[in-house]
Amino acid sequence: MATVTAVLVLVSFVMSCATFIEGVRAGHGSATLVAHMTWGALTLIVQLFAACVATIHARRSEQQIAMLEAALVQAGAGSYVGGGGPASVPEPGAAGSSAKAPGEPKRLA
Predict the structure, then answer these.
(1) What burial class does residue 9 get, using C-beta atoms within 10 Å of its C-beta: 0-12 exposed, 13-18 middle, 19+ buried?
(2) Which residue pairs from 95-102 have beta carbons closer than 8 angstroms and sit at least 24 positions apart in sequence?
(3) pLDDT, tens digit, for every residue of 17-49?
(4) Are residues 42 and 14 in contact, defined by beta-carbon separation less than 8 angstroms?
(5) Does residue 92 register a pLDDT over 70?
(6) Which whole number is the average pLDDT over 64-88?
(7) What is the spatial distance between Cα 50 and Cα 95, in angstroms, rounded to a whole number?
(8) Is residue 80 within 8 Å of residue 72, measured between CB atoms?
């Protein structure tokens, strides 16, 4: 899916360049204004289609990441998003842990 998005973005960029060249030619009188407007409309359609594909791709990627994260949490491996989940948080009072128990008062140095 990412390849399709990249190809569509590349095609829309090439079409934008062709539209620019066609506009310069129309400005110098060697091409018609209708041809330039046609290139412009087609370029706009391709760019909007590429944006829609990119949006759909981003949504599907988020859904897949959420499914993988849920599977990791269910398996007890924790969560990667937010710097880790339960597996990466040491227990309060464990060896090498600077975490304090919820009711433990602060100690001044």
Answers:
(1) middle
(2) none
(3) 999 999 999 999 888 999 899 999 999 999 999
(4) no
(5) no
(6) 72
(7) 53
(8) yes
